[in-house]
């Protein structure tokens, strides 16, 4: 978290939505100064793709409106690029002046601690390597294609490995939550024929937090050993009761009162 | 991207005929259609292509035996040709329509069939939309059909939307029309129809014309709003999937001269990701990116020296003329399909180009790899095609891509050795030269694992690919020597000693796997051929190991291999000499010692008939007498000299026959003393110059007459 001005409304808007994750290669000749222009072009593009087949001229009344804006407060470090939010809103059919546009799709790009991953890319490139999308897949496809064509970048679905999910489980369990804490749930997948078997393991948040507090040595720091230990404790507890070795299965979903994540690359932040 | 017809029209356009002439109502003779060559029967339905609409019909069509499908098609076409009934819900009509659709999607329609259907569709038939949607050509479209179709437009029997659909179809299928001269003459008609109320000045037509005006302003007289930016929905998508599948099916592997269209876009198949990049992006200019276009327009508002758009680049001379102002395509991946642009990026030293290509290719290879992600298995053919393109590009540029190298390192450990085998092995041969210790865990170990556990054919393929790898390293290094070395970029591995080290280690690696492979495959001659081939590329002292192997395989060594072995020997000698002339080498004394020992061993074999004797070198060929006894070969010591050597024995026989023609028994022992020298001369006359070189440089003959003594060349 940086010291920039945070727009609480915008950030709040990101919560309680399911986001699909993509990784994006660096964008070529992307300019923060041209966001308005990009909005216009992308609006026309989206409208053209959605319509029945006629060409669409930029600037006309299109029925949908795309806005690109920056999202402050979402940088990992100061070297990271500013996050960019893209929203598609459909023009309201009502003729009222103050009729609001309903947001039908949102996506945002951000940079996650880029300094260690991507060493020095030349100036022409902008590293916004994480993209999160919420809304209809067709819109994601259209917006993604436009970015790919315009900035020569590449989107690929990001999957979350069980190792990373375990990290998330540990870290989120350790966070303090004031409001009512939902149960912490871990879902494991076992490959079976004909269909895979899913095991859901739910723990009281207080218990989970208590366990994590005994494992974590330094507050604010998380190490791999601590995560492993945390998970091993949970596994052995499960084994004691059910005689199933969860360590041999594959962790596919983690859900806590703060956030949830699925290995397919979907996350949801609740608080 | 601009459809190709616009460019052609620009180049070949005749004077626009008076539109009124084009409006003559014509009706081509429909009775002339015949089914062309009888097709050999329906190809088996390609279960892989999930891009068909009507799967059910497809399967039922494939169930029918050969000719009956053809009959159905003939019936359907006859029905349409006669086409009196305008009853849309006629069962017969539906049945015939279904037949036509299924066959069209399965293998395309013949030109004559297309002719019939086009006329039907545009003459007011009620199911014309469905018909237009299934007009997939199997091979070509006759120009006459198109011309007659346009003439139908003039009659005005079909609705505006049908006309629009026809125009879309025409644009999508333009490249399939066999001749286009008459079509070019009809452009006047197309422009005229813009003034028609039905079509009107629709924005898409306006936009198309404004593009056309960019290229040929003198031909478009209509005033159009300037600087119009428009987006078009991808209109070919309706037919694109079907075209590609049918083309691939009908023609087997696509010929290299064809355009590299791979796979298909997302609209047809819901399962295919939208961000799939197996479709090479079209070469379109960067004008999409307003940052870029602002930069470009800024300079050229007044002057005419605008940048040359990449769509207009068709010939090499154009490239040369415009090289200073060429625009790059918006997606760098598209250069893979354009050899002119490849020339261009070969000479331009712009880091951002390489980076863009690097990111794109790296991601594409990783995402589309069929053994990384199980979802991709059904797209193996397309991935193979893509790998082929990457390989061809590397051959064109004569260097390997680092993204490709990284992909190989990541994917080889997971590779089964079967999927896309020839493509992957060819890509291995383009791995750039680098420190071998880096390569070893990533390349050598997984490759060795696969090598030892695979078939003979795979082993040979790997050896061949490693031979190519070696060759490419050597070639690349030779080219580097020519180029002025930039002091900035000269990492350790491009120096000569780096090259030598890596080469030596690679050869050592190959020697190891080859030895084991011969063991496993029981000295299969096919394998031996490839091993010898490798050593011929850049032979080296490791030749000696072959002696050992060959000795064990003494029973079944065919003449061919002997000949190859001899060639290797010769080449070894020559190469060593060449190497020595490059004095930049700082050979250690150890290398010299090894070299001397090899020479001694070879001389011992060839000359002094003391094979397998004194040799303390670890790779040497000294063998214990007991082992030699086990081979049950008489006269082991002689067995590799110039008379008895399997490769040279043929010459010895010929020599004996010439010298003693009446003597039927071949007594090799006759060749000694004076006759040994004659025999040697005989060999030289036969063209074994390499042997001559070797013997003259390595062997110091004390006397001309009888005794010979071997010695070493002074180093």
Automatic annotation (TrEMBL), chain A:
It holds the Pfam family CENP-L. Its main location: nucleus. Keywords: Centromere, Chromosome, Nucleus. It comes from the Eukaryota. GO terms for cellular component: chromosome, centromeric region; nucleus. It is found in: Chromosome, Centromere; Nucleus. InterPro entries: CENP-L. PANTHER family: CENTROMERE PROTEIN L. Belongs to the CENP-L/IML3 family. This is Centromere protein L.
From TrEMBL, chain B:
It is found in: Chromosome, Centromere; Nucleus. It holds the Pfam family CENP-I. Residues 45-57 have a biased composition (Basic and acidic residues). The gene is CENPI. Residues 58-69, 251-261 have a biased composition (Polar residues). Belongs to the CENP-I/CTF3 family. Residues 1-69, 250-269 are annotated as: Disordered. Signal peptide: none annotated. Transmembrane segments: none annotated. InterPro entries: CENP-I. Keywords: Centromere, Chromosome, Nucleus. This is Centromere protein I. GO terms for biological process: CENP-A containing chromatin assembly; mitotic sister chromatid segregation. It comes from the Eukaryota. The keyword Hydrolase does not apply. GO terms for cellular component: inner kinetochore; nuclear body. It comes from Terrapene triunguis.
């Amino acid at each position: 978290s940086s010291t920039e001005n945070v727009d609480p409304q915008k950030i709040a808007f990101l919560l309680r939505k399911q986001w699909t994750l993509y990784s994006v290669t660096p964008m070529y000749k992307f300019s923060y100064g041209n966001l308005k222009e990009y909005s216009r072009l992308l609006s026309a593009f989206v409208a053209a793709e959605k319509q029945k087949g006629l060409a669409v001229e930029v600037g006309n009344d299109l029925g949908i409106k795309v806005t690109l804006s920056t999202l402050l407060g979402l940088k990992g470090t100061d070297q990271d690029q500013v996050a960019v939010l893209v929203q598609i809103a459909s023009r309201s059919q009502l003729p009222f002046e103050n009729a609001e546009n309903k947001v039908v799709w949102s996506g945002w790009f951000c940079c996650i601690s880029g300094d260690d991953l991507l060493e020095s890319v030349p100036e022409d490139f902008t590293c916004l390597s994480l993209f999160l999308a919420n809304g209809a897949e067709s819109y994601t496809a259209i917006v993604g294609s436009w970015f790919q064509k315009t900035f020569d970048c590449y989107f690929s679905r990001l999957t979350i490995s069980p190792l990373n999910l375990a990290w998330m489980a540990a870290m989120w369990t350790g966070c303090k939550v004031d409001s009512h804490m939902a149960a912490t749930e871990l879902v494991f997948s076992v490959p079976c024929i004909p269909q895979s078997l899913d095991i859901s393991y739910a723990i009281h948040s207080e218990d989970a937090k208590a366990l994590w507090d005994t494992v974590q040595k330094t507050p604010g720091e998380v190490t791999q050993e601590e995560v492993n230990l945390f998970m091993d404790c949970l596994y052995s507890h499960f084994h004691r009761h059910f005689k199933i070795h969860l360590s041999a299965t594959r962790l596919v979903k983690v859900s806590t009162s703060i956030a949830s994540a699925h290995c397919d690359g979907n996350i949801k932040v609740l608080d | 991207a601009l459809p190709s017809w616009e460019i052609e029209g620009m180049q070949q356009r005749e004077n626009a005929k008076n539109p009124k002439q084009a409006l003559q109502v014509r009706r081509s003779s429909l009775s002339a259609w015949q089914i062309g060559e009888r097709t050999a029967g329906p190809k088996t339905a390609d279960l892989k292509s999930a891009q068909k609409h009507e799967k059910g019909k497809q399967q039922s069509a494939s169930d029918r035996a050969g000719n009956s499908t053809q009959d159905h098609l003939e019936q359907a076409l006859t029905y349409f040709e006669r086409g009196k009934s305008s009853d849309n819900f006629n069962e017969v009509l539906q049945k015939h329509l279904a037949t036509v659709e299924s066959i069209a999607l399965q293998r395309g329609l013949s030109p004559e069939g297309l002719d019939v259907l086009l006329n039907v569709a545009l003459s007011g038939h009620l199911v014309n939309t469905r018909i237009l949607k299934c007009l997939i050509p199997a091979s070509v479209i006759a120009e006459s059909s198109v011309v007659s179709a346009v003439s139908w437009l003039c009659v005005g029997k079909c609705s505006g939307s049908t006309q629009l659909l026809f125009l879309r179809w025409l644009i999508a299928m333009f490249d399939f029309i066999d001749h286009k001269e008459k079509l070019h003459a009809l452009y006047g008609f197309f422009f005229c129809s813009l003034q028609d109320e039905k079509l009107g000045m629709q924005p898409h037509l306006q936009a198309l014309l404004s593009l056309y005006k960019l290229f040929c302003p003198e031909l478009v007289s209509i005033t159009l709003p300037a600087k119009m930016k428009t987006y078009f929905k991808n209109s070919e998508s309706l037919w694109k999937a079907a075209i590609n599948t049918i083309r691939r099916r009908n023609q087997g592997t696509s010929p290299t001269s064809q355009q590299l269209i791979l796979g298909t876009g997302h609209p047809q198949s819901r399962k295919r990701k939208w961000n799939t990049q197996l479709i090479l992006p079209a070469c379109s200019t960067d004008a999409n990116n307003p940052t870029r276009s602002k930069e470009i327009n800024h300079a050229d508002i007044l002057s005419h020296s605008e940048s040359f758009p990449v769509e207009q680049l068709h010939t090499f001379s154009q490239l040369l003329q415009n090289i200073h102002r060429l625009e790059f395509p918006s997606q760098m991946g598209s250069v893979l399909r354009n050899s002119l642009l490849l020339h261009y990026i070969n000479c331009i030293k712009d880091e951002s180009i390489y980076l863009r290509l690097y990111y794109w290719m790296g991601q594409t290879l990783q995402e589309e790899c069929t053994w990384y992600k199980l979802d991709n298995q059904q797209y193996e053919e397309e991935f193979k095609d893509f790998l082929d393109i990457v390989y061809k590009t590397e051959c064109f540029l004569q260097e390997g891509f680092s993204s490709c190298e990284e992909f190989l390192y990541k994917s080889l450990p997971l590779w089964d050795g079967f999927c896309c085998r020839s493509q992957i092995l060819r890509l291995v041969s383009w791995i750039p030269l680098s420190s071998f210790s880096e390569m070893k865990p990533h390349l050598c170990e997984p490759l060795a694992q696969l090598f030892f556990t695979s078939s003979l054919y795979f082993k040979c393929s790997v050896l061949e690919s490693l031979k190519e790898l070696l060759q490419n390293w050597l070639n690349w290094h030779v080219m580097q020597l020519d180029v002025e070395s930039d002091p900035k970029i000269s990492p350790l591995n491009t120096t000569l000693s780096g090259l030598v080290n890596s080469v030596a280690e690679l050869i050592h690696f190959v020697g190891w796997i080859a030895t084991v492979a011969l063991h496993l495959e029981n000295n299969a001659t096919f394998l031996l051929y490839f091993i010898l081939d490798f050593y011929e590329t850049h032979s080296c002292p490791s030749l000696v190991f072959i002696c050992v192997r060959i000795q064990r395989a003494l029973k079944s060594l065919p003449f061919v291999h002997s000949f190859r072995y001899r060639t290797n020997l010769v080449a070894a000698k020559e190469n060593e000499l060449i190497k020595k002339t490059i004095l930049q080498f700082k050979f250690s004394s150890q290398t010299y010692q090894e070299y001397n020992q090899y020479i001694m061993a070879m001389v011992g074999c060839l000359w002094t008939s003391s094979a397998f004797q004194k040799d303390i070198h670890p790779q040497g060929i000294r063998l214990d007498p007991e082992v030699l006894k086990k081979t049950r070969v008489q006269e082991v010591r002689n067995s590799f000299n110039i008379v008895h050597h399997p490769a040279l024995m043929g010459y010895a026989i010929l020599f004996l026959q010439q010298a003693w023609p009446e003597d039927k028994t071949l007594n090799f022992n006759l060749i000694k003393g004076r006759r040994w020298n004659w025999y040697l001369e005989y060999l030289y006359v036969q063209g074994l110059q390499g042997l001559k070189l070797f013997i003259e440089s390595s062997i110091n003959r004390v006397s001309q007459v009888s005794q010979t003594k071997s010695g070493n060349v002074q180093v």
